[in-house]
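The instructor's notes for this session suggest beginning with a concrete chain rather than abstract definitions. Hand out the sequence below and ask the class to guess, before any prediction is shown, which regions might be ordered.
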Amino acid sequence: MSNPSEETAEQLIQYYEQYEQLEGTIQNLLDDLLRARISGNDTKVRQELRSLARSERDAYRFLMYSMNLDNSYEELLRGDSEGEEVLETAQNINQKYSRLLPSLSAAYLEVFGERLNPITSYDYEPGYRSEYAEPMIYFEASTGDLDLFETRVSSSVGLHLSRSIIEGINETLSTVIENDFLIDESEYENLVEVNEDIKEKVEEIDDKMESLETVSPQTNVD
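After discussion, reveal the predicted structure:
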């Protein structure tokens, strides 16, 4: 999603006007989706939001700006009566439907950013399987309010998974270079930052590998 400061007041008002035409219908839908979210029907929430984003793109953009209010957004709208009306509506949406933000964001990325099940949150926990002397890793990822991926594997399997993802990214970047494709500046900066972080983490793993003590597999099997 674009940063609000990159949009003009006229564009934001245009999004609002599209939303205003369907305000009652959209609010009824969001109220229904809030109930569905509370009851745990996250699949319905995602499906309905995808449909709304595809059919009413500008109105959906207004929902997203409403859910991501910041000072730059407010500064664009303050100063005239129409802008104040837009801002007031956006603030009301933000307050009433904030619980839907993860699902709204995920559906936005799918429809507008051509993503598939975009990961919006993840977590991990270390563990240990003493009977087999295996360091373990528990990992989970979510897309909006939908659980996407959950696994508990040995650390070596976790590294295999990490390697496969890195190999895929490497091939993707090769394709970009070979075809002279352009890359968004913020995406490039994110790649540089995370790549440097990965290098540091790999060095930390190297240091820990030197301190690990191994045990014969036969001693760990009943």
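Then share the key points. The radius of gyration is 23 Å. The mean pLDDT is 91.
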